[in-house]
Amino acid sequence: MFPAPPRGPQLVLAALGLLLARLSGSSPPVPDVPHIAAYFGTKTRYEEVNPHLRRDPAFVNASVLKPPAGERCSPVHLTAVIRHGSRYPTARNIRRIQRLSELVRDSAGGELRSRWENWFTEDMDGQLVMKGRAELRQLARRLAVLFPSLLSEENRLRISLRSSSKHRCVSSVEAFQEGLWGRPEYRHEVDDRLLRFFEFCPGFVEGVEQNRSALQEVERFRHGPEVDAVRRRVAAQLGVAQQRLTPDLLEAAFFLCSYELSIRSAHSPWCFLFDEDAAKVLEYQGDLKQYWKRSHGHVISSLSSCPLFHHIFRTLDRAGRPRRSTDAPPEPASILVGHAETLLPLLSLLGLYKDPTPLTATNYQSQHGRSFRSGVIAPYAANLLLVLYDCQRGPRLQMLLNETPLRFPGLEDDAPLYRDVRAQYRHLLDGCDANKACESRAGGRQPNTEL
User: If DSSP codes are grouped into helix, strand and coil, which group holds residue 116?
Assistant: First the structure.
């Protein structure tokens, strides 16, 4: 039976409450978010970087576009390098979750065991989840509001769309097209040489990816005092011996909180095992891995992205070239969908997020204010936007990361002249030769001091 509607004073109070809610501009309630949600590194949700999207995924802040106020400018091209959206764990991490589940099932600590059941299966293996598709559709819609003249229906056949071959990236570029044009006939290309460049660079594969000593700082920290203290506390809460909760299983427990948040928007019981201090330690462990494997730690990691760097600047050159009235208009947009492993080397090559002191196993305490936080730089659905404007004084280029303005190193303006950007990167435009760099293993393993 339904409750009777409010009468008399109850009706007045209900109406007054509704009026106050409307006057206060209240929005639908935001789902409960774990207190450690911002510390999951590359497994961080996009809305932790842009919290306003929790309430309104369609919100667009047009003030992020910053051509000079006193100069008439109009956008003529957009290049967007985009990471895929939220995904399931890979099969490797699902196997770790299974081992952790068995450990907890056999332990004395029954509270978590009674509140959680393992629902991950290996066939999920890194596939894009529904929320990940929604993230790419919503991003496309927001960019279409920011750049209506570029991402229009009329320009559909002139927009270049490329993706990595991984299914999560192909699904993401499909979702992006759905966000722009409903349910279109998909027309993207797969280009691993451009978006998985690291696989085609022997210097990186042999010198970093397959070389255990290249990530020695990560291993030292995983077995160092900070992580050991977290293992000890979490093992005690689970009722297991510390030696049975290996660093891999500790990381699996931490990321279970992130997976259930990013996939199901759920506040997982695993989250309560970690306070903010513990989360910061494990975030740093992940950042160490990204720093030494994909970023400033080794020269070859960033140099491996030279093919993508040159592709972007060739595209910008064509879009910014002077044209006669009879010439065809430039390509309005280039959409490139890849991975965190696509974005991080490129951003490092551009000289971004390079801290004065390298991240190491022994300087965690002094790195709390570091700029290199992979969860802020490359969460799910991360995006690097390069906007080329046609302005009175000549073409200008603006960079945004995750829809937030970001200045080019060494340049003061938000949207400097394109020729000044090219001058800033002249050493790379003239000398960033991936074939030559990738031949040398020894050179690739040197600390990155040249960029």
Answer: coil
Q: Write out residues in the chain with pLDDT < 50, as ranges.
A: 1-28, 442-451
Cα–Cα distance measured from residue 373 to residue 377, given in angstroms and rounded to the nearest whole number: 6
Contact of 300 with 203, CB cutoff 8 Å? yes
3-state secondary structure of 33: coil
pLDDT value at residue 106:
82
List C-alpha distances in Å: 300 to 124, 198, 345, 347. 32, 9, 9, 13
The pLDDT assigned to 25 comes to 42
User: What does 166-215 look like in DSSP terms, one character per residue?
Assistant: SHHHHHHHHHHHHHHHSS-----EE-HHHHSGGGG-HHHIIIIIT-GGGG
What is the pLDDT, as a whole number, of residue 392? 93
Is 427 a catalytic site residue?
no
CA dist 182 and 446 (Å) reads 48
> Is 28 strand, coil or helix?
coil
Catalytic residue among 35, 52, 77, 84: 84
Backbone phi, psi, residue 333, to 5°: -155, 150
Q: Which residues contact 372 (CB under 8 A, 6 or more apart)?
A: 287, 290, 291, 295, 296, 353, 354, 355, 359
Q: pLDDT tens digit string along 65-99?
A: 999 988 999 999 999 999 999 999 999 999 999 99
Ramachandran class of 336: left when φ > 0, alpha when ψ lies in -120 to 50, beta otherwise: beta
Determine the Cα–Cα distance for residues 384 and 350; give it in Å rounded to an integer.
12
Asked if residue 255 lies in contact with residue 375, where contact means CB atoms within 8 angstroms, the answer is no
- Whole-prediction pTM value? 0.90
Give me the pLDDT at residue 22, please. 38
